[in-house]
Automatic annotation (TrEMBL):
It comes from Halopseudomonas yangmingensis. Its main location: membrane. Keywords: Membrane, Transmembrane, Transmembrane helix. InterPro entries: NUOK/Mnh_C1-like (IPR039428). It holds the Pfam family Oxidored_q2. This is Multicomponent Na+:H+ antiporter subunit C. It is a multi-pass membrane protein. The chain crosses the membrane at residues 6-25, 32-53, 59-79. GO terms for cellular component: membrane. It is found in: Membrane.
Amino acid sequence: MTQTALYLIGGLALWLIGLHGLIVQHYALRRIIALNIMGSGCFMVMVALASRVQPPDPVLQALVVTGLVVAASASAFALRLASSGKPEQDE
């Protein structure tokens, strides 16, 4: 098994684990984590596809780096929205 195939299988496994978590879980925080796991699987597949040729495809590598920044920003925004849904209690 080549290294590219290993990354492809690993990325697919991560994506499927994230999809399972997204379908099964009901809490917002767990669903956000499941989406992040799915995104990590997509990034692994893109890195594997970029490394198929020599030299590696710089466009896919740049997309992965950009996607990481967007995923981190979207996760922070989603966490903020999930935390604002709970009313504060006055004691």
